[in-house]
Design brief:
Blueprint (H helix, E strand, L loop, with lengths): L7 E2 L9 E14 L2 E12 L3 E6 L5 H8 L7 E6 L2 E2 L5 H8 L2 E4 L11 H12 L4 H14 L16 H12 L6 E5 L7 H18 L2 E5 L3 H7 L2 E6 L2 E6 L1 H5 L4 H8 L1 H12 L1
Parallel strand pairs: 4-9, 4-10, 7-8, 8-9
Antiparallel strand pairs: 1-2, 2-3, 2-5, 5-6, 10-11
The structure holds adenosine-5'-triphosphate.
Length: 274
């Protein structure tokens, strides 16, 4: 496989940070019908970071996530994951890359006719050839890892609370022991306590598993408490990416309203006190 494990690359986002880039996207243009949602977008994701992607409603955050994982076609641009150019890679190389990431969709997107354990085993069945008993053990391990009780294994999604669905979906995202997880609004729909617990879980998994996290979020608490870097999407591109301080200093009106508005000041004050 034409894989470069350790890439040191300059960054196009103006953050000035150089390091181990595991996703490098350049010139992404994605659209539907006549209009482009993303146009010439560049973004880098560094190994081991939690990157929070923010932006106004409908700016294309989920579209960006889906494009990076290959669920939406690009009109232009290139994506390199783990040093592999997705467009020129063989099918075998693409599948090897696919095994290295997991995804938690908005609302969890669990299969309603499958139990939690069976949901977690869907990616295992697709990518691994393991006996059922071993897949059962692995699924139980993932269930414990995300803080669900063992009896959740045989429950159906309709029997779970919103927080349990998110955890089960995270367990499925972790099924193949990925290096990278994509999370689409992981705390949306959770109450503040559930959201804070979910943030703690993501942070703990990042530390213990060495995960890299690409997280689309509207949740200011998550941004302030667990994100190492933030990328703000607007005008079909990344307006700014960097640490919170860098992003907050950007004069873009949406960024100013979002990070310096009343709600943001409350969150910042609360977090600085804790
Ligand atoms: N499959 C699709 N077909 C047509 N238009 C789409 C499709 N998917 C997304 N869009 C459009 O792309 C735009 C961006 O959508 P996207 O879901 O990425 O926004 P977002 O930034 O994640 O918004 P939100 O924060 O509200 O979830 C929207 O105008 C949406 O209607």
């Amino acid at each position: 496989m034409a894989e470069v494990e350790h890439m040191e690359r300059p960054v196009a986002d103006g953050s000035g940070k150089a390091g181990d880039v595991i996703i490098r996207a350049r010139g992404l243009t994605v659209g539907f019908g006549e209009s482009n949602i993303l146009d010439g977008l560049d973004i880098d994701i560094y190994r081991g970071e939690v990157l929070g992607v923010v932006g106004g409603s409908g700016t294309g955050k989920s579209v960006l996530l889906r494009t990076l994982v290959g669920l939406l076609p690009r009109r232009a641009g290139a994506v390199e994951m783990f040093g592999v150019d997705i467009d020129t890679a063989s099918r075998e190389e693409q599948r090897a890359v696919e095994r290295r990431w997991g995804i938690l969709f908005q609302q969890g997107a669990l299969f309603s006719s499958l139990t939690v354990k069976q949901n977690i085993q869907v990616p295992m069945r697709e990518h691994l050839h393991l006996p059922q008993s071993l897949m059962d053990e692995l699924a139980e391990l993932k269930i414990g890892m995300v803080g669900l009780r063992p009896d959740a294994a045989d429950k159906y999604p309709s029997e779970l609370s919103g927080g349990m669905i998110k955890r089960a979906a995270l367990a499925r995202a972790l099924a193949l022991d990925p290096d990278l997880v994509f999370l689409d609004e992981p705390t949306s729909g959770l109450d503040p306590i559930g959201a804070a617990e979910f943030d703690d879980l993501i942070s703990k998994l990042r530390d213990t598993l060495g995960l890299t996290v690409f997280m689309v979020t509207h949740d200011l608490d998550s941004l302030f408490s667990i994100c190492d870097r933030v990328a703000a999407l607007g005008n079909k591109r990344i307006l700014v990416a960097g640490d919170l301080k860098t992003v907050i200093e950007n004069p873009d009106p949406w960024i100013q309203e979002y990070f310096r508005g009343k709600r943001a000041r409350g969150v910042a004050a609360r977090i600085s006190r804790s």
